[in-house]
Design brief:
Layout: H1 4-24, H2 26-44, E1 51-55, H3 61-70, E2 75-80, H4 83-93, E3 102-105, E4 119-125, H5 134-143, E5 145-154, H6 163-175, H7 177-185, E6 212-215
The structure holds S-adenosylmethionine.
């Protein structure tokens, strides 16, 4: 069994190695990723004036969308592990001297507190299932939210429940050296396990096959 510190280091390596592709395809990812997060964003309904955290923001497209919803009186903070993606998010969406999304580099599992906390709401698109220690990540999220705050996230389920995803990965493995390297650097383990957010202090989410939204107790 691989220990959490090793999984975290692999996770950081993986995202550092794959960042150039995400940066290069940032506009395309915004477009193809939108349907993957739309249900959760609809449920979260960021309101004008709210402070919202976007965990695993990648190159910032979702944070920018949230920033538009909360408006100039609110605050949208995107957090990501990968420095190159955060730098790209800043250059794509930050407006010097003006209200707009803010971007922070950090590991949600090990940050004591997220700059900008406490948040009214937290959003995460396709990130939580990748954490080495989801309970640690959700604990930081819980600690960074105000009491009664809400969270909505979308995640992939395991490969067995996503045959399309498994098929794409196996095709890529045959055609792409980088993918083969990535695969050896990211042996799945706890990072790919579904986790209920109850342990860090969230109330149970309503049952939904497509997304999870929940509220702090
Ligand atoms: C599958 S990508 C999704 C990016 C973006 N949310 C989207 O939907 O386009 C997962 C993102 O989570 C980030 N990530 C992974 N582990 C993280 C951690 N422990 N803390 C913060 N971000 C993390 C990665 O760097 C990556 O940008």
């Amino acid at each position: 069994m691989t220990d959490t510190a090793t999984l975290r280091a692999r996770n950081a390596d993986f995202w550092a190695q794959t960042s150039p592709g995400w940066v290069h395809q940032a506009d395309r990812h915004d477009e193809i990723g939108r349907p993957l997060g739309a249900v959760a964003l609809d449920q979260l309904q960021p309101q004008p004036g709210e402070r919202v955290l976007d965990v695993g923001c990648g190159c910032g497209g979702t944070t920018a969308e949230i920033a538009r919803a909360v408006g100039p009186s609110g605050n949208a903070v995107g957090l990501d592990l990968a420095e190159a993606m955060v730098a790209t998010a800043r250059s794509r969406f930050s407006v010097p001297g003006a209200a707009g999304p803010q971007f922070v580099t950090g590991d949600i599992e090990t940050l004591g507190a997220v700059p900008g906390a406490p948040f009214d709401a937290v959003y995460a698109r396709m990130t939580l299932m990748l954490l080495a220690d989801p309970v640690a990540g959700l604990t930081t999220i819980r600690r960074s939210m105000r009491s009664g705050g809400r969270m909505a996230a979308t995640v992939f389920r395991d490969g067995g429940a996503n045959p399309g995803c498994r098929a794409r990965c196996s095709v890529r493995r045959h055609i792409c050296d980088r993918c083969r390297r990535c695969r050896s650097a990211t042996t799945p383990a706890p990072s790919h396990s579904p986790t209920r957010p109850a342990q860090p202090g969230f109330s149970p989410p309503p049952a939904s096959p497509a997304s999870t939204s929940t509220r702090t107790t």
